[in-house]
Amino acid sequence: MVIVFDLDDTLYDEMTFVNSGLLAVSEYLESSFMIPLVASRGFIKDRIKYGREGILDDVLKHFSLYSKNNVKRCLSIYRGHKPEIHIYPDAELCLNGLSRYPKYIVTDGNKLVQHNKVAALDLYNKVDFVFITHRYGLKHAKPSPYCFYKICEREKASPDQVVYIADNPDKDFVGIKPLGFKTIRVLQGPYRNLKKPPEFEADCNISSLAELDAQLLQRITSRELRKGWDIDAGDQYGR
User: Fold this and answer.
1) What are phi and psi of 103, to 5 degrees?
2) Please, which pLDDT band fits residue 223 given cuts at 50, 70 and 90?
3) Cis omega before residue 159 (within 30°)?
4) Which phi and psi (to 5°) does residue 109 adopt?
5) CA 82 to CA 122: how far, in whole Å?
6) Strands 162-166 and 129-132: what pairing?
7) Can you give the pLDDT at residue 221?
8) Which residue has the higher pLDDT, 108 or 218?
């Protein structure tokens, strides 16, 4: 059996990376343009309530610093900074508890950004290999099964021996579940309450990675798991 994890909002809280990157941008604005850190941080705190898209443009416009070059520079700082982020405690315990299984990560996103996240979380030392899908071309980002088949090749495993644990039903499961890969959705992060048609959902749901153990993995790969069976707070195992 091979265990594959998503990264963002599965193994750590992605908003901690966002906040870390925006702090690095605020520090740059203070050192380069004498914009007080408290002023830019205050604006960002209010602005981010409406989402991340366009936030760098809006920060620069608010402080009359907008230009294409300044946007490019701030984006470079955001993407290239060394993030202050931490793995979820239950994810740490899960990775340690499943030490006997081959473990991989498949994650979408900017190559430098995702690498910096994985390095900051020390995940290169906790899994066998990290597949950053954009290294193989945007067409191989999820829901493409490309990187999952690469894992099958590396491990000489069939798809039904590979279990993928992720949080986003928009893209994480729909491309691989019909091919026989086993899927588990962890109900945390911004998608935790999102409901999708059955083809987008995982084989089963868990509330946190604390529920992911060898017993559940054996059940899902041995086809004992009923279609659509949800695991709620470990009740199925009498915890």
Assistant:
1) -130, 140
2) low
3) no
4) 125, 170
5) 12
6) unpaired
7) 83
8) 108
Residue type, 181: F
Complete DSSP assignment for the chain: -EEEE--BTTTB-HHHHHHHHHHHHHHHHHHHH---HHHHHHHHHHHGGG-STTHHHHHHHHTT---HHHHHHHHHHHHHS-----B-HHHHHHHHHTTTS-EEEEE-S-HHHHHHHHHHTTGGGTSSEEEEGGGG-GGGSTT--HHHHHHHHHHT--GGGEEEEES-TTTSSTTTGGGT-EEEEE--STTTT----GGGS-SEEESSGGG--HHHHHHHHTT-SPTTPBP-TTGGGT-
Q: Rounded to an integer, what distance in angstroms lies between the CA atom of residue 160 and that of residue 126?
A: 23
pLDDT per residue over 206-218, tens digit each? 999 999 998 899 8
Output the pLDDT for position 231. 42
Instruction: Check: CB of residue 162 under 8 Å from CB of residue 151.
Output: yes
The structure tokens listed for 5 are 């994890």
